[in-house]
């Protein structure tokens, strides 16, 4: 039905605004504030929601068993299994190889580079969780840009957006789809039109979204993106650290002779970090605290302007130069590159301690972008967050090791990456089997995905100790926390009350316009809270509102699902947007500049597609 939605009947009674509803609204408001302000990590917020819901059981109806039911929920376990399967694929190097081959023909043509980026990202994101796909392709796409003399800023936001659109090709493309499927299935007892999604339930609409969005990114979007990072950028110049890096020589008779690097830091200044020790032709990158210093050694130090001025008068050392470009610092033993703090990194919330970082990661910190802003001088003590980008120098083997860890994303391809390429056919066969079993409805996706995890271990695609590293635990805890919140929203009558207000205020509009408004509302909400929280909060309201105006609840569920999985207006709404924030040198406004038109276009395309394929 695409015409005018029927007005709410006069006889329809307004649901009572009970104490239970007010309490649940209060918990929802608390969740929104915590998600928006990020005063607590997202996983801690999720645990807090469970505690609050159970403590307020007389009003929320959430007893302890229901409160922790999110941990055993089918959606949570399925997402966990799919993350492990995605981790298995990433260990084979298959995604990176696909990206390289697609980029081989791109050359210096920006449109060919964008086509390669979109073509390598979207289809893969339909079957692998799009978060690790973007993490794996950031260095590949950055190198494609640099080889083609293109600013990485032109390609990295399109990489993130393409992964989000590709995630809508199948049920398993994103954790949001799996959670939305679970909520839809739970509401099936109230609305006969609702059910769990099949593997390819909305693939036809997802394909339309991918094609339309890709055409926009290739032919229009790049004109809207500024070149924040120059092609083949000189990192020292880009991070403006030339004035904060100096070469000092250990002169004859210096009190530093025979002392360790740790002793030298204490003697020079607490803000001084020794990033290299040059002895003859040898370069010791990110030297350990116990490294002994010799007469004639040249120390490359990173500090602040005041400390460098003080070094000019320090006893036992002589200021001999200021490295001004990457070539002044680069050696075969040490590569300068960027690393991005990932979603589940242990660095999140920690204050930057260059010395401790050097000891743990065997890499020297030269610069920092925090929340997209360049921290040129005093980087010590800055509290790190997801998406922050560190400029580091590290030996090649260290970058190889870091590229296989989940703490950081290396923004340039490591020179000697080692993958289990011989296991790639096995990994692909396992993923095909998982998808086929679920698509043919032989077993539910939960069972086929768990079987796939066992197969990954049994065939050696993954080592047993890599299982836990492959899981983004904050997502798992988030799902476990918001699922009981969704149950409280439904059982207390809060969802029905909100739906009644929607019908009262928008019941005179055409049904398709109400559907579009739900899409827009979901998209805006996702920009300030997580996409998973958006579907849990809005699907029950959307389904009830659809029933209230005599529309198809399934159409409204799909609108909310698609809108929550395509967040283009800022870096916060979707984790892949954060991953490209630092390497692209972006500002918050860049996302809105390219994302707002795309969001508007896809809102119309998606709503019309839903009306065409499923009816409203």
Automatic annotation (TrEMBL):
Keyword Nucleus recorded: no
Organism placement in taxonomy: Archaea, Methanobacteriati, Methanobacteriota, Stenosarchaea group, Halobacteria
GO terms under cellular component: plasma membrane
Places the protein is found: Membrane
Family matches, as PANTHER family: BASIC AMINO ACID ANTIPORTER YFCC-RELATED
Entry keyword annotation includes Mitochondrion: no
TM annotation in the entry: 12-37, 44-62, 74-94, 114-138, 202-225, 426-458, 470-489, 496-522, 528-547, 554-574, 594-614
Residue stretches making up the RCK C-terminal domain: 233-317, 324-408
GO-annotated molecular function: monoatomic cation transmembrane transporter activity
InterPro entries: Cit_transptr-like_dom, DASS-Related_Transporters, RCK_C, RCK_C_sf
Record keywords: Membrane, Repeat, Transmembrane, Transmembrane helix, Transport
Membrane topology: Multi-pass membrane protein
Main location: membrane
Matches recorded under PROSITE patterns: RCK_C
Name this polypeptide is given: Di/tricarboxylate transporter
GO biological process: potassium ion transport
């Amino acid at each position: 039905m695409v015409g005018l939605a029927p007005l709410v009947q006069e006889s329809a009674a307004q649901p009572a605004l009970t104490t239970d509803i007010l309490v649940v609204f209060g918990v929802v408001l608390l969740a929104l504030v915590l998600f928006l302000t990020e005063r607590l990590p997202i996983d801690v917020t999720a645990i807090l929601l469970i505690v609050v819901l159970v403590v307020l059981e007389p009003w929320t109806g959430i007893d302890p068993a229901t409160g922790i039911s999110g941990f055993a929920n089918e959606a949570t376990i399925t997402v966990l299994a799919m993350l492990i399967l995605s981790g298995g694929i990433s260990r084979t190097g298959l995604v990176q190889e696909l990206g390289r081959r697609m980029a081989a023909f791109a050359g210096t043509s920006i449109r060919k580079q964008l086509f390669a980026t979109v073509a390598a990202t979207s289809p893969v994101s339909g079957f692998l969780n799009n978060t690790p796909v973007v993490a794996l392709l950031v260095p590949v796409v950055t190198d494609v840009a640099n080889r083609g003399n293109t600013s990485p800023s032109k390609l990295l936001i399109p990489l993130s957006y393409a992964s989000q659109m590709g995630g809508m090709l199948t049920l398993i493309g994103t954790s949001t789809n799996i959670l939305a499927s679970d909520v839809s299935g739970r509401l099936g007892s109230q609305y006969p039109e609702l059910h769990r999604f099949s593997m390819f339930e909305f693939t036809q609409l997802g394909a339309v979204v991918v094609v339309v969005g890709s055409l926009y990114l290739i032919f229009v979007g790049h004109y809207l993106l500024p070149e924040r990072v120059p092609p083949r950028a000189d990192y020292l110049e880009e991070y403006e650290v030339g004035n904060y890096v100096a070469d000092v020589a250990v002169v004859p008779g210096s009190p530093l002779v025979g002392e360790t690097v740790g002793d030298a830091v204490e003697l020079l200044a607490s803000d001084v970090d020794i990033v290299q020790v040059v002895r003859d032709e040898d370069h010791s990158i990110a030297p350990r605290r116990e490294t002994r210093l010799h007469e004639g050694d040249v120390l490359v130090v990173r500090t602040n302007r005041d400390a460098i001025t003080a070094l000019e008068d320090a006893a036992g050392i002589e200021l001999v130069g200021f490295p001004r470009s990457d070539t002044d610092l680069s050696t075969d033993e040490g590569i300068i590159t960027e690393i991005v703090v990932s979603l589940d990194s242990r660095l999140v919330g920690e204050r930057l301690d260059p010395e401790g970082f050097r000891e743990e990661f065997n890499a020297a910190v030269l610069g920092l972008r925090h929340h997209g802003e360049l921290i040129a001088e005093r980087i010590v003590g800055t509290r790190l967050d997801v998406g922050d980008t560190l400029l580091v120098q590290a030996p090649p083997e260290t970058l190889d090791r870091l590229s296989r860890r989940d703490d950081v994303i290396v923004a340039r391809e490591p020179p000697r990456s080692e993958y289990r390429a011989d296991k790639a056919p096995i990994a692909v066969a396992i993923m095909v089997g998982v998808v086929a079993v679920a698509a043919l409805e032989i077993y539910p996706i939960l069972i086929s995905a768990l079987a796939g995890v066992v197969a990954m271990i049994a065939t050696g695609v993954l080592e047993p100790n890599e299982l836990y590293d492959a899981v983004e635990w904050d997502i798992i805890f988030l799902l476990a926390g918001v699922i009981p919140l969704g149950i409280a929203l439904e059982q207390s009558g809060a969802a029905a009350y909100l739906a009644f207000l929607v019908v009262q205020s928008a019941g005179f509009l055409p049904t398709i316009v109400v559907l579009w408004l739900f899409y827009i509302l979901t998209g805006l909400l996702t920009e300030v809270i997580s996409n998973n929280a958006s579907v849990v909060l809005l699907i029950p309201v959307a389904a009830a509102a659809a029933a209230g105006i005599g529309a198809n609840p399934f159409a409204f569920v799909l609108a909310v699902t698609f809108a929550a999985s395509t967040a283009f207006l800022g870096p916060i709404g979707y984790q892949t947007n954060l991953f490209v924030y630092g390497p692209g040198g972006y500002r918050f406004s860049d996302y809105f500049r390219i994302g707002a038109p795309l969001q508007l276009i896809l809102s119309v395309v998606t709503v019309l597609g839903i009306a065409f394929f499923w009816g409203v």
